[in-house]
């Protein structure tokens, strides 16, 4: 009986391995990432064989075995690299399979295109397959020491958001490498366990009614995720808030920030909001997740300014004012904001995913909880679904 069971396990494993090998030959989606924008110069190094190509015609210009660290500058006659001038507005760097391209001390996989912008600056685009792109993202979103099921949930969410962000042919790139898309650090940011999470979920994305879901995520919801419609022009069942008892161990669960009222006034004035010396800040409305939807700011001369909670947070800085869920305590010429959570609150709560994984939920259960009604599909198995809604940019 034991022999039969072992043979059955080996047979199933063999089928799974064969299926994975077959899937490995399927062409992955390509993502164009803006890794440098509008720079005067960059540092470029290539360890291994490479080819330079004209970015317009794709014709080979030159090839070499290695490029030592060189400063790339723009001259009147073209792009200056390593003592040579290339008279092109776009230059493709195509490394061999074993070579590594290093830009500003960060290593990247895939092709790199150097673009001379109309403003006479350098923009650098990294064209990379979506799986390697996600490997360069995960380390910046979650700790690689977290439970594997939390890492897998984040991998699917990040892959989905990347696929949702794929741009049309009229744009130079699909995503940026910062918080306005997803923080991406290239090969330098790859780690073994985050890479494993990407491999184990390869090709998997979230859809709602056969359309790619804008799979937003954030660090800590503070007890309940946010309805997307409170922030953007999106109203989808998978992006409506859910209670979250799982992120209570997050270091961002509770926070306090103190501001001088004079600094608040100056910040708002610079953003175009008219207010004099501030006397009082009061909460006007909250939504069902207890996040602030509007504030009333009263100046010493009695004038009042009503501002949306999300606009006030954006003005003060989303990494300074961590969320819209806080209490206001006036302290003379100062104000204390005592809050919960970090991020816009929509979609996957990353610390909540960690908490769920520690309670033995698998990544599919985690994703189903934070994106209720969504479905996990493999983008290889069907034509790329349409987007669920027009792209929106979270903070």
Number of domains: 3
The gross shape turns out to be globular
Uncertain spans, ≥5 residues at pLDDT below 50?
1-25, 391-395
Strand order of the largest sheet: 4-3-8-11-12-1-13
Average predicted confidence as pLDDT: 90
Judged by helices, strands and strand pairing, the structural class is alpha+beta
Rg for CA atoms = 24 Å
Number of helical elements? 8
Main β-sheet: number of strands, strand sense, barrel status? 7 strands, mixed
Number of strands: 25
Strand fraction band?
25-35%
* End-to-end distance: 58 Å
Helix content: 10-25%
Describe the structure.
It is a single chain. The protein has helices at 2-24, 130-141, 148-165, 192-200, 261-270, 309-316, 350-358, 363-370, and strands at 30-39, 41-47, 50-54, 60-64, 67-75, 78-81, 84-86, 90-95, 100-103, 106-108, 111-116, 122-129, 175-176, 204-208, 211-212, 217-218, 255-260, 278-286, 292-299, 304-308, 326-331, 334-339, 348-349, 375-378, 386-387. The protein has 395 residues and is α+β, with helices and mostly antiparallel strands. The protein folds into three domains: 30-130, no CATH class; 133-215 and 350-387, no CATH class; 255-339, no CATH class. The strands form six sheets. A seven-stranded mixed β-sheet has the order 4-3-8-11-12-1-13. A hairpin with a 5-residue loop joins strand 3 (50-54) and strand 4 (60-64). The model is unreliable at 1-25 and 391-395 (pLDDT under 50).
């Amino acid at each position: 009986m034991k022999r039969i069971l072992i043979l059955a396990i080996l047979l199933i494993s063999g089928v799974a391995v064969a299926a994975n090998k077959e899937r490995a030959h399927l062409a992955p989606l390509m993502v164009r990432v803006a890794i440098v924008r509008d720079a005067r110069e960059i540092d470029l190094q290539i360890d291994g064989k490479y080819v330079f190509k004209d970015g317009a015609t794709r014709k080979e210009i030159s090839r070499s075995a290695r490029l030592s660290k060189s400063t790339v500058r723009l001259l009147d006659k073209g792009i200056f690299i390593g003592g040579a001038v290339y008279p092109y507005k776009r230059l493709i760097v195509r490394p061999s399979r074993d070579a590594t391209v290093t830009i500003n001390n960060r290593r990247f996989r895939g092709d790199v295109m150097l673009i001379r912008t109309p403003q006479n600056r350098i923009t650098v685009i990294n064209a990379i397959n979506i799986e390697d792109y996600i490997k360069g993202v995960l380390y910046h979103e979650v700790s690689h020491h977290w439970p594997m099921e939390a890492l897998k949930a984040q991998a699917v969410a990040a892959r989905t958001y990347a696929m949702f962000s794929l741009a049309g042919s009229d744009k130079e790139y699909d995503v940026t490498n910062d918080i306005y898309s997803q923080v991406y650090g290239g090969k330098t940011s790859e780690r073994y366990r985050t890479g494993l999470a990407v491999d184990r979920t390869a090709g998997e994305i979230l859809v709602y009614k056969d359309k790619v879901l804008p799979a937003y995520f954030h660090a800590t919801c503070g007890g309940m995720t946010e309805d997307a419609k409170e922030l953007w022009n999106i109203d989808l069942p998978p992006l409506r808030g859910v209670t979250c008892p799982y992120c209570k161990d997050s270091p961002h669960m509770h926070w306090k920030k103190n501001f001088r009222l004079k600094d608040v006034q100056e910040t708002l004035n610079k953003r175009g909001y008219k207010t004099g010396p501030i006397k009082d800040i009061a909460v006007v409305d909250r939504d069902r997740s207890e996040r602030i939807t509007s504030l009333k700011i009263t100046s010493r001369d009695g004038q009042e300014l009503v501002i949306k909670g999300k606009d006030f947070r954006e003005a003060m800085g989303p990494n300074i004012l961590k969320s819209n869920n806080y209490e206001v305590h006036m302290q003379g010429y100062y104000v204390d904001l005592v809050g919960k959570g970090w991020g816009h609150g929509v979609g996957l709560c990353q610390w909540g995913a960690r908490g769920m994984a520690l309670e033995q939920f698998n990544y599919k259960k985690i994703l189903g909880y934070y994106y209720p009604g969504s479905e996990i599909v493999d983008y290889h198995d069907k034509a790329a679904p349409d987007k669920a809604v027009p792209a929106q940019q979270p903070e």
